[in-house]
Amino acid sequence: MIVAGIGCRSGCAAEEIADLVRRAAALSGCEPGALATPAFKAEEPGLQAATFLLGLTLLQVSAEDLAAVQPRCITRSVRAEAATGVASVAEGSALAAAGPLARLRLPRIASAGATCAIAVSP
Predict the structure, then answer these.
(1) Could you read off the pLDDT of 18-69 as tens digits, one per residue?
(2) In the chain, where are the structural domains located?
(3) Burial 65-100 (b: 16+ CB within 10 A, else e)
(4) How far is CA 48 from CA 57, 103, 111, 122, in A?
(5) Which of 14, 25, 59, 99 is most buried (CB neighbours < 10 A)?
(6) Residue 85: what pLDDT?
(7) 24 closest CA partner among 59, 44, 46, 54
(8) Pairs from 63-71 (Cβ < 8 Å, separation ≥ 24)
(9) 2-120 fold
(10) What residues form DSSP beta bridges with 109?
């Protein structure tokens, strides 16, 4: 399973998120089969629209699952932690959704309003 974890600011445009996922796929050399985001972000309109544009499924990661994978994340953001309670939204979402044996294929990359990381499971 290949999962692109997504973090985004409120109001982030679908095209920005979709472009970031495409860039992450190119950098990682693999195509995600799904997007993942924390459950508290799942209803964000830009994220919903980006999921549709990319033709992927959006997986919601619970707060508990997101917190559990934080020690496995490479990138830590003080700003994200202050806003969400976790230091790595994109990496954490990708790892949690891809499963317990998943590893990061691409650590977090960012655009102006979104972040993306790719995780793969064996």
Answers:
(1) 999 999 999 999 999 999 999 999 999 999 999 999 999 999 999 999 999 9
(2) 2-120
(3) bbeebbebbebebeebeeebebbbbbbbbbbbbbee
(4) 10, 25, 18, 27
(5) 59
(6) 81
(7) 54
(8) 63/38, 63/39, 65/96, 66/38, 66/92, 66/93, 66/96, 68/96, 69/95, 69/96
(9) Nucleotidyltransferase; domain 5 (3.30.420)
(10) 116
